[in-house]
Specification:
The protein is an alpha+beta fold. It has 15 helices and 11 strands. It starts with a strand and ends with a strand.
Length: 386
């Protein structure tokens, strides 16, 4: 039985196992690093089914004895681990603060911040680590501002967040300690909230529909997901473009392509080497087999995003590809709450870099870049020259 992540994970190109499974065994059993045996689906239409069909539950992933993907266990009763109607209620409490209108009001500030960070990197002299200079501080500063979390605490919660995504079973004790520390930190912020300001925690604290534990859980989910994913994507996007410098040069020459380029890079890059877990609530026919009630099913979004049934030339980066079909943000009830925020951050990061560093290049061969072995993956560092 294959173990996931597969041996060829954590590098630019996907392990060939993904393509082989997608063509020959579109649904198969795999064993996670936590020792759970789950179904893995790899084709676009099957992944869509698992993510949208209510018979595949997120709440089931935190039930007693549920299969587990990583070292840490997701928090029960939160936005990512509930099903409608409870999920609908919780999402409704925060959807307004992540609306397109609210995020667009912040675009100029995000663009200015991205420009300042790039200018600071350039002023420090080449070569520089683009991950440390831009990819990490941009989304961290943005989510701190939106949530009402002190930016000066970033080193503390960064360390806890990285452990929360660990794929190393030997780190289980450290992971539990990190999750506890992060919970205590958010609980202190909630308790000390003065009730003034326009940040999300203050806004949610004034909602009588949310208890303190729910508010802390919201804070944890938004803080972790609000920076870790986008930080990895910024670095992965730039690394992918610079791996074939003609892509970078085209984006410099045609800045109007930035928005479609972001959508293409969302499709092409792999944010995770595993997939989105669901648990079947009843027997469900899927891809020629019967998934039994209680079975875990992992929807491999990265594999679906390279399915030739859904995308022409799926393994190529096509900067002007017609956007709209990729599943990078999910689909259905659990479509990423912060999708538009992530898009704005990614777009403005690329705009700042292409405008200020038109001759940006990797400072080391692409094959020498090292990838982080965590649930939400990306390069450990991104040395660049300009």
């Amino acid at each position: 039985m294959p173990e996931i992540p597969f041996p060829g994970s954590f590098r630019f190109d996907p392990d060939p196992v993904w393509g082989r499974l997608r063509e020959q065994q579109p649904i198969t059993r795999v064993r996670t690093i936590a020792g759970s045996v789950v179904w893995l689906v790899t084709r676009y239409d099957d992944v869509r089914t698992v993510l949208t069909d209510p018979r595949f539950s997120r709440a089931g992933t935190v039930a007693p004895g549920a299969p587990q993907v990583a070292v840490s266990s997701p928090l029960p009763g939160t936005l990512p681990t509930t099903d409608p109607p409870e999920h609908t209620r919780l999402r409704g409490l925060v959807s307004g603060v992540f609306s397109r209108r609210r995020i667009e009001q912040r675009r100029d500030w995000i663009a200015g911040l991205a420009g300042e960070l790039v200018d600071r990197m350039v002023a420090a002299g080449a070569p520089g680590d683009l991950r440390a200079a831009l990819a990490l501080p941009l989304p961290i500063q943005v989510i701190c501002e939106l949530l009402g979390v002190p930016y000066d605490d970033r080193d503390r919660f960064r360390a806890w967040t990285e452990l929360a995504y660990s794929l190393v079973p030997a780190e289980a004790q450290r992971v539990r300690a990190a999750m506890a520390a992060l919970t205590d930190y958010l609980a202190e912020l909630v308790a000390d909230n003065p009730g003034v300001g326009d940040d999300i925690l203050t806004e949610l604290a004034g909602d009588a529909a949310l208890g303190t534990d729910e508010l802390v859980a919201f804070g944890m989910n938004l803080l972790v997901a609000g920076h870790e994913t986008t930080a990895n994507q910024i670095a992965s996007f730039v690394a992918t473009l610079l791996r074939e410098p003609a892509h970078w040069d085209r984006l410099v020459a045609e800045p109007e392509l930035v928005e479609t380029a972001v959508e293409e890079l969302l499709r092409h890059t792999r944010l995770s080497e595993v997939g989105q877990l669901r648990v079947a609530t009843t027997d469900v026919p899927l891809a020629g087999v019967t998934v039994r009630a209680g079975d875990g099913v992992m929807a491999a979004i990265a594999a679906a995003n390279r399915d030739p049934r859904a995308f022409d030339r799926p393994d190529e980066v096509v900067l002007d590809r017609e956007p709209g079909r990729h599943l990078a943000f999910g689909i259905g009830p659990h479509f990423c709450l912060g999708a538009h925020l992530a898009r704005v951050e990614l777009q403005e990061a690329l705009r700042a870099l292409t405008a200020r560093c038109p001759r940006l290049r990797l400072a080391v061969p692409a094959e020498q870049l090292r990838w982080r072995h965590v649930l939400v993956s990306g390069v450990e560092a991104l040395p660049v020259t300009w």
